[in-house]
From TrEMBL:
Residues making up the signal peptide according to the UniProt record: none
Classification via PROSITE patterns: HTH_HXLR (PS51118)
Ranges of residues in domain HTH hxlR-type: 13-97
Protein name as catalogued: Winged helix-turn-helix transcriptional regulator
Pfam families recorded: HxlR
InterPro entries found in the cross-reference section: HTH_HxlR, WH-like_DNA-bd_sf, WH_DNA-bd_sf
Amino acid sequence: MPTLRTALAGRTESVDHALTALAPRWTTWLLQTLRQQESMRAAEIVAATPWNSHPYTVQLLTRMQERGLVDRLKFGTYEITTAGRAAEPVHRALAAW
């Protein structure tokens, strides 16, 4: 039977994993932007987030791809993955908090 300490450690690891996957700051915004479209080219994502530079946005997209949150398709088109869509409850919980 798991102890309270073991159960809390498991939850803490889950929370830490979710927060790490959604870092840095604009990752959540990019996920929400991509969620609204079937797919978007990098230039379209940059246009939707004008406060970020093109190189920084591409860097974020690369990190998101490495974490399995987005896929990079042909011709620089990005699409949200199942894992990226699964972040929605995390976004809602953080927004409610």
